[in-house]
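As noted in the main text, all predictions were made from sequence alone. Below is one such record, for Polyprotein.
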Amino acid sequence: MDSSLFTAARINKFSGTNFHVWKFKMQMVLEERDLWDVVSGEVKIEHCTSTLDQATFKRKSRKALAIICLAMEDSQLPLVHSAKDAYDAWSSLEGHYEKKSLANKLFLRRRFFTTMMGEGDDVLEHINRLKTLAEQLDAVGAPVSEDDLVITLLASLSESYQFLITALESRADSLSWELVTSRLLHEDMKRKEQGDEIEGAAHGQAQAFMSRDNKRKARPAKKTGACHNCGKQGHWIAECPSRIHEDADRHRYQRANIAQEPELGDYLFSVGGGKTKSSYMWLVDSGATQHMTSSKEFMRNYKDFGPVDVHLADDGVVQAIGKGDIVMSMMTRQGVKKGVLTNVWHIPKLSRNLFSVGRFIKDVVPVTFEVDGCFAETKGFKWKLGALEGKGLFKLFMTPVLPDEVNVASPINFKGDNTSYLWHLRLGHIGHGGLDAIVKKYYGSGIGMKSVQKWEFCKGCALGKQTRVSYMPKSPDRARMLLEVIHSDVCGPMKTPTFSGKRYFVTFIDEYSHYCVVYLLQNKSEVATKFAQFVALAETQTGKRVKTLRSDNGGEYTSRTMSKFCVDHGIMQKFTPPYTPQLNGVAERMNRTLVESARCMMEHAELSKSYWGEAVMTANFLRLRCPSRSTSHDKSPYEVWSGKKPILANLKVFGCHAYVHVPKPKRSKLDARSIQCRFIGYSDHEKAYRFEEIKSRRVLVSRDAQFMENVFDSGRRDYVQDGAVVEEEAFMEDEDVPMEDYSSHDTSNMNFEEATMDGVDEPGVKRHQRTQSLEALANAPDAKRRARYLTMAEMSATADTSHSVETAYVVDSVGDLPRTFKSAVESSDAVKWKEACDSEINSLRQNETWNLVPLPQGRKAIGNRWVFRVKETKDGRIERFKARLVAKGFLQKHGIDYDETFAPVAKFTSIRVLLSLAAKYSFMIHHMDVKTAFLNGYLEEDIYMAQPDGYVDEDHPDFVCQLKRSLYGLKQSPRMWNQTIDKFMLDLDFKKCKTDHCIYFKRDQEDLIFVALYVDDLVLVSNNAELIRATKDALSERFDMTDLGDLKYFLGVEVNQDRSAGTISICQSKFAKDILEKFGMDNSNPVRTPQEPGLKLTKSMCVDGCKHDETMANVPFRNAVGCLMYLMVGTRPDLAAAVGVLSQFSADPCPTHWQALKRVLRYIQGTREYGIEYQATNNDKLHGYSDADWAGDVEARRSTSGYTFILNNGCVSWRSKKQSTVALSSTEAEYMALTEAEYMALTEAA
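Prediction:
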C-alpha cells in the first residue's frame, strides 16, 4: 500500500467536525507526497504544455483525490462525489465548511468571544482552542487582530489567574500574544510543580501520622521538637494533654479545627498541604494565632516587615513578610454583610488561607462551634463563620473583596450596630440628620432606637445622589394654613417608561405642610385633569379651599383647560419667569428628592429603570412620614396634613425579597404555604404591602410576609414583552388604625380583610360600581379571608368608587420576534433567520419579481420591511422560521399605484359544511400551501420600491426595484393573486360555488372533489385519492406548493378525522390557550357561563364617557374582543351572544364592560377543549333554530336575533346580532330573527 495512503488512513477520518484541524493534517500529508500543488490550484492542467505533463498532472490529481476520500467518513463523501479532480473536491469542502457568509462569521465570532476557561481546565488546551477559532475566523474572511486575541484570552481566564491578569495589565509596553501565552504557560507549570511537591510531602507525612493510632502496627517514632501548646518535649500540639483537658471542659460538641483524631484530610491541613486552592477559600483554624493568607492582592493598608518565622503543626516553617487589612463579604442570618479583618499576615508560601479563631475572639466576640457550623454572635447579629466539611475542617463562610470593589460596597463593621443603616434603607435612603430627627423628636413610633450611629458608606446613595449647593434663600412670605399655596411641577420625560407607558410624573405640594400628592402621566396634557382630581381630594380631606397654584410657565399650566378650571374655582395662578426654576424651588426640590430617593432604592435593590414609577410612589409615601427642614411644626408632613402620627414600625426596604403567605383557599394540602416575592411598595387602599411574585410576575397585596431585608436580586426583566405593570394614579393613605408591630417569624394573626371581588385574581380593572365595605365583607357569614393575586398589569383593587381604575396591558408573544433585518441577524437564531431571508430573496429572484432601474423623475419609491414569524404546529412546536419581504403599501396612492383591491376568501361556514359532508361520506381531506403566493400575480401599474435591507446591489446601490409581480404588502396583491389562481382553477375544469366564490368543485362520473381557497391555503376534499393526487400535481406544476398531507391544522383550527368512527372534530384549543396567556388569564378561576345572569351592560355605565380617561386608554378591550370574535367565528357558537354584546362597547368601554369581558375569558379557561364534532348519520338534512331576545338592549330598546344551523349533528352556521329596528312586540322580534335565519338557509347553506 502506498505510504501516503497509509499515512492518510492513520489520520482520524473527517466526520464533519474540526474541519480546521483535519484540513491542516491533510495539507501536511499532501505536502509530504508532493501533491499539494494540484490540490491547492497552484498548478492546473492548462498550465501543462506537453502530453506527458498533463498525464503526470492527472495521475497526481487522482492520487490526491484518493487520499482525501480515504480520510473522510462515509457521511461526508457525498460532498465530493461529483468532484472532477482533487482541486474540485478540496474547493467543495472549503466552500461547505468555511463559508464566508455573514451567519458563519457571526457564529464563529460568538464562539470566539464567549469561550471561557473553567477552574481546573488545562491552560494550553484553552490557548489552543482560542487560537484555532481565530484561525477559523481568518479563513472565513473575518480576521482577529492580535490585540483582540490577547484581550479575549485574558478576559476568558478563570478567577484564579486574576492576579496574573492584573500584573500583565500594569505593564507599560504592549502585550503581545507570545508574551501573554508564555507567562500563562510558565505560571501553569509552576502551579503544577508546587501542587505535586506539596501533595507528595504531605502524603508521606500523613501516612506516618495515620499509622500511630493503629495499635496493632509498629510503634511510631518519638516526636521531636517542643509542643507549641505547653512547651514540653515528646508530643505535638494535637496530642497535648493540657489542650485535651481544656477541650473536655468545654461543651462536648465543640472541637478545634485541627482534628484530634488524625485523619488524612486533617493532617494535610495541619501541615499546609494539598493542592493549591482558590485564593477566595478560607478555613477556620482554632490553633492559628493570626489571620494568614498567601494572597496580597486582597490587602489594603499593606505594611512590609522583616521575615517572621511561622511554625506549622508538623514542625514546618514558613515566613510572613507583611500584613494588611482585608475586606470580607460574609453571609449572616440577616443577609450579606461586609467586614474588615485587620492585621492579616501575608505568607506567600502558605497554601491555605487561615482564619484565626483566637484573634477573632480577642478582637470581636466569642466563637461557638455547633453541630451545623461555627458561629460568632454579637448584639443584633449572628454570623455563621463556617460549616463542617469532610474530616473536621470548617470552611469559612467569607470571601475576600478586592480593593477596587470595596469602594462600591457598604462595609459593616463587626462591632457596629447596623440598626441605623437598616432604617436608612427602610426610609428610602433618608439622610443622617433626618433619621436623627425622627429618633430624637419622636416623629414616629416603632423604630426602637435611642440614637443614630453614622454609617460609613451606602452604595445606593453614592449612585443615586449628586447634588449642587442651593443658592436661593427661603421666601419670608410663607403659607400660614393648609392649601393656601400649592406648588406644582412636572418631571420628565423619562428615557425608560414605566410598565404602563408613563414617562412623566407631576407633584402637587402644599406649602404649609409640605404634603405631596404624586400622579404618573403619559403626556403633559394630563396635568389639568390631575390638578382637578387633586383639588377635589385635598378640599374634601382637609375641609379647606385651594387658593393659589404656583408653577412654571409650561404649556401644561397655561393651557385653556387649566386656566378655565382655576378661574371657575377661584384659584389664583402664579407663574415663574422663563428659565428660572429656582423661583419654583419647592416643587423642583420635591421632584429632585423623589427622583433621588427612587434612584437610590432601585440602585440598592438592583432593579431595572422600568420600576421608577413604583419607586417614586414609594419614595413619596416614605417622605411624607419623615421630618422636613422646610416645616417648623416639629411634625412630619403626614401629621400636619391629617393630624395623625405616622406608624413607622412596619416599613421595609424597597426591592427586598420576602416570603408571602398563601391563604388556605389558594392552596392544596401539599402546596407550599408561601411564595417568594419582591417587595415593591405599600398599598394605598389597604394596610398591606405590595409584592411582585418573582416567578410569575403577579402582584400580591398582603400583610402576611416574612421579609429578608438584605436579600435582593437583579430583577431585570423586559416586561414590555411579557406584560406590564399598572402605575398608581395617586399615592394617598388613610392611616386611622395603626398596623401592629409584629415579628417576621410570626404571621399567624396578620391577615387583612379584603374586598372579595369577582375576577380579582385576574389582570385588568376593578369594578366601577361601589361594593361593600371591607368590614361588611369581613363580617359576612361566607366571607373568605385571602390575599389577592394580581398580575403586574393590575393594581391592588378596592371597593370605593373614589379610587382610580387600574389599567391592564398585554403584549403578544410575537413581541419576541425580531422587527428588523439587523436585529434578526444579530439575534441568537441569526443563522435560521438568515436562511429564511435567503429563501425569500431567492424566491423573489426566481419569479423575476422586479427589475433594478434608476428611479424615474417625479416618482417616489415606496419602502419595504422584513416581517419575521415562527410557524408552529398545533401542539406549539416550531415547524420553521419564516421571513417575508413586505412592501409598505400604505404609501401607495389610489389611481396611481393601485385601483381595485377586493379579493374573496372562503367563508368559515362553507368550510364547516365541507367538513360535515366529509364526515358523512368518509371523504379524504388534504391540505396544501402556496409558497410566496402573491408573487404569482402580475401588476398592471408601475410601482417602484426601495431595495430590501441586507440585499442591496453593490454595483447599483442607488437603483430601485421596478415591481413586475405583486408583492406582499401592496394593496392590490391579494386581488392579483386571486385572479391568477381563479383562472387556473377554471382552466382545470373546476366550477365555482354560487354562494362562495372560493369554493371550487369538479365531478368525474361518481367521483367528486372540492377545493376551498383561503388566500394561500387550500383544503382538498374528495372521495377519490387519485383525483386528489391529480389536482395536487396540477397545482404543483403551476405554483410552488407545499403538500401538508391530511388536514390537521388550518387557520388556527385543529381538525381531527376518525374515518373508522365516521367523525370529524374541530376546535381551537391552542388559540384559546394563547388568548388566555396573552391577556394574563391563564391562571384564572373558570366560571360556568360566559355572561353573568341578570347583568345588562349599558353605555350609561361610563360616567361622562371614558374616551378621555387614561385609566382605560390602554386597556386592550378591542384587542380582546377581536380575539374572542375569531374564536367564536371558528368553532365556538356558545360565545356568540356574549361577544355580540361586548362588541357594542368597543368604542368607549368602561370598567364594568372590561369585567364582563374577563368573565368570558374565565369561561374559556374552563372550556378550552370545547369544539364541534360532525358524525356520519342517516339524516343529512340541515336543521335550523331561531330565537330573539326582545328589547334586550335596555337603552335603545332593540332586540337581538340569534340562529344556529346543524348538519350531521354539528353546527355549521350561527349568529347573534342586534336587530336594525325596534320590534313592537316579542312576536315581531321573533319574525325578524326568523327572516335572518331563512336568508342564511337560502344563501350561505345552499
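The two ends are 81 Å apart (CA to CA). DSSP finds 36 helices and 40 strands in the chain. These features were considered when defining construct boundaries for the mutagenesis experiments described in Section 2.9.
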